[in-house]
Amino acid sequence: xxxxxxxxxxxxxxxxxxxxxxxxxxxxxxxxxxxxxxxxxxxxxxxxxxxxxxxxxxxxxxxxxxxxxxxxxxxxxxxxxxxxxxxxxxxxxxxxxxxxxxxxxxxxxxxxxxxxxxxxxxxxxxxxxxxxxxxxxxxxxxxxxx
Amino acid sequence: xxxxxxxxxxxxxxxxxxxxxxxxxxxxxxxxxxxxxxxxxxxxxxxxxxxxxxxxxxxxxxxxxxxx
Lengths: 146, 68
Fold this sequence. Notes:
heterodimer, A: 146 residues, alpha/beta, CBS-domain, four-stranded mixed sheet, three-stranded mixed sheet, 5 helices, 27% helix, 21% strand, elongated, B: 68 residues, three-stranded parallel sheet
């Protein structure tokens, strides 16, 4: 719809006219703020701080970071905040290797616009204690814990 | 010819004073829209409506739900 609206506005003499083609869903999925009268609860409303480490951290250091417990593992992110993997804890990996060598690449993620109440129900049904939320660009936003 | 922009470019345009217009229907706009966006539904988009909700001198960014 937006391309047609943009062309029509140009026809009316407006300019410059831009089309945010990725649209509202892209904005919501990135966890950015919105306005509205009937805004539903979304994953972005329940985000918690995850335990993270860099890919070059040793497994020994990561295990120490994760020793506070209550988490299925450490999320591995690069300097730009992009989610690279998950180091499950406890781990059988050698404490001397880097996290990048021991992690599971590409953990399952959700977007920030996921409706929250059905998500929490699914987590309860499946016995899932934590899910990871990223932007469409792969940037880690946080975790939802149950 | 309208220029397609990414989320990052959109945020920059808003920062620079562009006006934002959602072209979806009434319910979708009322439920949730981007901060500061005016309502300019495509199905009722006439020159008169545009004149009432948009400022001529500012760049305009339109959006709908997604690119599909």
